[in-house]
């Protein structure tokens, strides 16, 4: 499926970049219990950021990555999240065109990017994002003629259930938690939106990349192979790969073992 429209996709990029700016607010404030309301401010001097200094991506480089008042440096993550969100919105709209399914995928992208950076910082996946996304996915399946509710329900149960089983077996053999409850809820959300056939591909791709990153990280810490890394970003990566061109690979992988499905 490919429905490319430069104008619509470009508008999607701008809208995504703006939502990326809001995602930065959530990523920083939510885990600390700070209000999401109110204008952006410099966390060093506490001065409010002027609106013309808060333009996604552009303002960071215009100000050379520093506060206009106190000159304290801003993290490069701010324009990175804004650009990533914009680029993913562009890709989804370019690939799927304009439809209800596209809207659901854009909601997914926003949730995945936001939750991934929170997971990287704090090793948590907020229920408000994972369970909220799960609820929206089930509601969408009931309302969206492009999807089937039963498939969404099976996807939810299969996604959440298989990861819960993996976590339980790992804990039974090692006595340590290898996967958090947030990862289970996240995969349940992905299953509810993408269907159960997406789950094997997401788990396989995220496990391969996560294992490589984990091995590299273990060489740089004293904990070695016991080094804990968040798994949520890798699940998010697998889901994004699936919807942006590798869906056929995921279906092929399922049919390889279940040819009659």
Automatic annotation (TrEMBL):
One of its GO terms (molecular function) is methyltransferase activity. Residues 14-94 form the Prepilin peptidase A24 N-terminal domain. InterPro entries: Peptidase_A24A_bac (IPR014032), Prepilin_IV_endopep_pep (IPR000045), Prepilin_pept_A24_N (IPR010627), Prepilin_peptidase/N-MTase (IPR050882). It comes from the Bacteria. It holds the Pfam family A24_N_bact. GO terms for biological process: methylation; signal peptide processing. Plays an essential role in type IV pili and type II pseudopili formation by proteolytically removing the leader sequence from substrate proteins and subsequently monomethylating the alpha-amino group of the newly exposed N-terminal phenylalanine. This is Prepilin leader peptidase/N-methyltransferase.
